[in-house]
Structure formats: C-alpha cells, structure tokens
Amino acid sequence: MANELRPCPCDIGDRFDYGGLGQEVQVEHIKAYICKPPAGTDKAVIVIHDIFGWQLPNTRYIADMLTTNGYIAICPDFFVGQEAWKPSNDWASFDEWLKTRDAGQIDKEVDAVLKYLKDQCGAKKIGVIGFCWGGAAVQHLMLKNPHLKTGVSLYGVIRRFADKHSLLHPTFFIFGEKDDIIPLEQVTLLEQKLKQNCKVDYEVKIYPGQTHGFVHRKREDINPQDKPYIEEGRKDMINWLNKYL
Question: What's this model's pTM, rounded to 2 decimal places?
Fold first, then answer.
C-alpha cells in the first residue's frame, strides 16, 4: 500500500460534494445505502466500498448511476460499524487496521443483504461490483457464493486471492495501467491463471494511463485526457452487468 508521503489514491474525491439520491436503511446487523429506480425491477447490484467505507460520496454516486441504468443498488457497511480509513490516518498503522477488516470475511453480511434484496425489494437476479478492497471482496464472492449471477472487480487487490481462480460466475476485472498499488505483472499473472483454471466467462481489461481509483473519481479531479477512459470503464461495467443480469 501507499505510505504517508504518497497517500493512497483511493481518497481522491473524499470530499466529493454529493449527497446521493437514495436512503440509508438497516439490514439486520448492518447499515446500508440503497437506491431504487422509479420503475420496478427484479435486478439488483451489491456495491462493495473501498477502504474509505460505505459513506464515501463517490461510491454512492456510482450506486446511483447503477440505479439510473435500471438496477436496485445497495452499498452496505461491510466494516460493520468499524471506522473507515481516513486520508489523514498514519499509513504505518494500515496493516493493523486491516486485520479486523478482511475482504474474505464478509459472507454473513452478504447473506443478510441477499435476503433483504429478495424479501424486501423483490430482486431475483443479483450481481456485485467492488472497488479496491471491495474489488478483492468481489473476487472472493465469485469464487464461492452460488446466489450471485456476476461480478465486476474494479482495481481489486489481486494479491489477496492470488492463488484462487476457479470462478463460479462471469467476472469482469478492471485495472489501470499506471496503478501504483497493483503492478501490471500481477495483472498478467491473473490473466494466465484464469486462462488455466476458469470455466466461466471472464474479462481482464487494462485502461491506458489510468491510476488507482479512476472509475469512481470525482468530476473535478478528472483530467481531460482521462475522461474518455473513466467513461469507458463505467460503460463497460454497466454493459457487463446488462449482459449477465
């Protein structure tokens, strides 16, 4: 991960002035942000936040974007009330902080959210997307959860599940070419392992010149040369969900 001299680029947009179109709800033991389209639908997407937590405005912006494309979108607090990482925190303490926030230990929360989506929202086809920490969580879920139809992992931390590639569901992996946290050699190895082991549809795509966190970057931090790739990443994500949900 990054150090205190070069902050994690996930926090770009931490002060994004965006209130959200949805509402906060209680789902069993966790809180969640949910947004529903005006017209009824039986399709839903679980949005898994990055280290900056479920209240990050950028993440809610993406959830609302999913809703404008016809999906129920829900972003639960997968830290279950524990404090999200703050840009001002000391990166020397990050590994200790992460020990109680394992992207591979979210199954109880996902089961609660799936039940809520089915019972309270009428969802029948459910997918998942996630950013960074949440991208690693997506890979975890695609390896084991039979109730999800598809997933999109956006700059998910590969090393978290580096030895597991037998995906159950179609999965799309989005990476930036200039990501300091996920070197391209890790992406290449992921592709090789998926080719050898994966029996379902998958795609690994690298976006030229892009850094970590690029798809959910706030508007005012988008450089003109990056904008086409950010828009392409968002469009690709929606197209993948449309194809498999």
Answer: 0.92
Q: For residue 167, is it within any domain? A: yes
Burial of 29 (0-12, 13-18, 19+ CB in 10 A): exposed
- List the catalytic residue out of 49, 169, 212, 216: 212
**Is residue 212 flagged as an active site residue?**
yes
In DSSP terms, 173 is beta-bridged to 153, 204
Catalytic residue status for 132: yes
Q: Which of 64, 77, 179, 226 is catalytic?
A: 179
Whole-angstrom Cα distance, residue 12 to residue 140? 25
Token pair 């205190």 is found at 4
pLDDT for 213 beyond 70: yes
Beta strands in the chain (DSSP E): 23-27, 30-35, 43-48, 72-76, 125-131, 151-154, 171-176, 202-207
- CATH number of residue 222's parent domain: 3.40.50.1820
Residues 69-92 pLDDT 10s? 999 999 999 999 999 999 899 999
Give the domain extent around 108. 23-244
Choose the catalytic residue: 132, 165, 169, 226. 132
